[in-house]
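pinned: reference chain
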Amino acid sequence: MSGPVGGNQAMTTTSGQLKAQIGPSILNADLSSLANECHRLLGCGADYLHLDVMDGHFVPNLTFGHPMVASLRRSVPVALFDMHMMVSEPLKWVQAMSDAGANQYTFHYEACGDDDQQVFDCIRRVREANMRVGLGIKPNTPVDKLFPFIEELDLVLVMTVEPGFGGQKFMTDMMTKVETLRQRYRQLDIEVDGGVSLDTVGQCADAGANWIVSGTGIINAPNPQQVIRQMRDVVNEAIERSQLDR
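pinned: its structure tokens
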């Protein structure tokens, strides 16, 4: 694997402060020229690339698997690949995604059937495969379902739309989950995904999210570089304000 992040270190500055990370969701890009699109987005300042893996079971849509990730890694050797695993059997794909070049493996709590042991088993497997580990929840899942696992995670993902399709409206009420997590876990990387644009990133940042996934909000923008820069500034400014308020 290659990329700007190794091991299980949180995305912080040298002072230990959380850092904004802006990741375009490449599923919204031109899939006929995906490697070129990835290079374009990285050239625009993207901190990482968010890859949505859907199996047609956990969510009704179907995207791609580890062979495509391996092919993309050969063309894009230096980038953090953040795998959003919207799959019904997250354990099944851990090693294959690691071998393909993934850096971070975020699976869904709901895919484990409300079985905490399955969640812990998947976390352990991801660690053993030398990837950062993330755990996500859908909008209808209470945030406290994440609490037993936080100490074992690098990142939590709060979905701000129902997973499976792009272009949905941002769910403002999901920000209470982000706020709860940030109040309890000051140094945790918190990612939001779904309907995030320049119009909504401020809400995410003020609630405490520092990893921002944006699909159409970045990729369809006339100037993606400017959007990424503005999003990063908004998040970093919110982080600075939170540090002053402590």
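why pinned: The chain has one domain: 21-245. The chain is about 35% helix and 15% strand.
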